[in-house]
Design brief:
3 helices; alpha+beta; single chain; Nuclear Transport Factor 2, Chain: A; six-stranded mixed sheet
Length: 131
């Protein structure tokens, strides 16, 4: 049981490192390589609202994120919680959304299967002004 949690944390933390790098630079290769072939993700709004399936759809999504934040997003991790299969990261992010100042509070949930990420869920709700 403890070994499962340790592996889950190790894999999720590495994925989060790549995720953070992707948000900052637009380079998503390492993060995308960590996804399972049957990867799914859930996003709360916009053209990717709801459940999305597959690595190709994920690639489209993260390309769209880069286009929305071409100067990158900076993250500050506030909290991390986990169980045997899932790790939740709560963070603040800040940058320019289509050239306009942006900051928010976000939580993402990563589900781990062996040494890959099989699912991603994102939640946010700030008004973009509070931090």
């Amino acid at each position: 049981m403890i070994k499962n949690i340790e592996n889950t944390l190790k894999v999720a933390n590495k994925a989060f490192e790549y995720f953070q790098h992707g948000l900052a630079t637009g380079e998503w290769t390492e993060f995308l390589e960590m996804l399972t072939d049957d990867f799914t993700f859930w996003f709360p709004m916009g053209k990717f609202h709801g459940l999305n399936q597959g690595k190709e759809r994920a690639k489209e999504f993260f390309q769209y994120v880069y286009e929305s934040f071409p100067d990158g997003l900076n993250l500050t991790l506030d909290r991390q919680t986990s169980n045997e299969t899932t790790v939740v990261f709560e963070f603040r992010d800040e940058g320019k959304l289509f050239g306009q100042p942006y900051k928010n509070r976000v939580a993402i949930s990563l589900d781990v299967r062996e040494d890959k990420i099989c699912s991603y869920r994102e939640y946010f709700g700030s008004d973009g002004k509070s931090y």
